[in-house]
Amino acid sequence: MTSTLRLSIGALCLAVLAGCATPGTTTTSQSTERSTGQWQEQLNEVEEFSSWSLIGKVGLRTPEDSTSANLDWRQTPYQYRLLVTGPMGAGRSTLEGRAGRVSLTTSEGRFEADSPEALMEQELGWSLPVSSLSDWVRGLPAEGEPHESSEDSLGFPATLSQAGWEIEYRSWQNVDGVWLPQKLVMNYDDLRATLVVNQWQALNDEQ
Q1: Is the pLDDT of residue 4 over 60?
Q2: Which are the contacts of 79, defined by CB distance < 8 A and separation ≥ 6?
Q3: Residue 128 CB neighbours (<10 A)
Q4: What is the 3-state secondary structure (H, E, C) of the chain?
Q5: Contacts of 89 (CB under 8 A, 6+ apart)
Q6: How confident is the model at residue 93 (pLDDT cuts 50, 70, 90)?
Q7: Does the keyword S-adenosyl-L-methionine apply (predicted)?
Q8: pLDDT, tens digit, for every residue of 42-55?
Q9: 120 vs 5, 103, 173, CA distance in Å?
């Protein structure tokens, strides 16, 4: 890992966390246990669940440092917004994207590019597959890229390897009868990112 990567932990947080029947709002499981075959039964619903908000906490760890921040992520098929508050984002950082334009607002100012990856390349000198994360956070591989995955004993995703990232699905929560990831651990080189979801909520596309 380069020194630039190690020194850019606040911006990296935003990169790591940006990317029909729909679940509602929940902070606790509505069913106590998952069962065999449920993931395949609900797979179409998860794939169609494309307008949502997520509230949680993200932590990053490198060999030199560790930090965490609160995350408020709103995603629709047309736009997304990730608001990060806390030490990791130097107080408050926002990544927004729509119609081919992406902006990153931090204490240093506002920056724009054509895509999340282009913005990272422009501002940091390197890029990550930000566009894939809206799939990964739902337990799905990103389309159009090779991947490897494994299942747990119930048939739910256990691990996913894609674009250089190793993702582990540690726990799940029931959101109006649909199981969604609650804790993800993601590793890239010597970076470790942990996302804990406190709340999922379905949104209308207009929200």
Answers
A1: no
A2: 96, 97, 98, 99
A3: 23
A4: CCHHHHHCHHHHHHHHCCCCCCCCCECCCCCCCCCCCHHHHHHHHHHHCCCEEEEEEEEEECCCCEEEEEEEEEECCCEEEEEEEEHHHCEEEEEEEECCEEEEEECCEEEEECCHHHHHHHHHCCCCCHHHHHHHCCCCCCCCCCEEEEECCCCCEEEEEECCEEEEEEEEEEECCEEEEEEEEEEECCEEEEEEEEEEEECCCCC
A5: 10, 13, 14, 69, 106
A6: confident
A7: no
A8: 999 999 999 999 99
A9: 11, 10, 32
Other CB atoms closer than 10 Å to residue 79's CB: what's the count?
Answer: 13
Residue 69, class by beta-carbon neighbours within 10 Å (0-12 exposed, 13-18 middle, 19+ buried)? buried
Neighbours of 153 (CB within 10 A): 8
Closest CA to 95 of 162, 165, 19: 19
Nearest to 34 by CA among 114, 166, 139: 139
What domains, with CATH codes, occur in the chain?
Answer: 3-202 (2.50.20.10)
pLDDT tens-digit series, residues 95-152 = 888 877 889 887 788 888 877 767 766 665 444 566 788 999 999 999 888 999 999 9
pTM of the model: 0.83
| Identity at 181, one-letter amino acid code | P
For residues 143 and 116, give the distance between their C-alpha atoms in angstroms, rounded to a whole number.
Answer: 17
Cα dihedral across residues 21, 155, 185, 172: positive or negative: positive
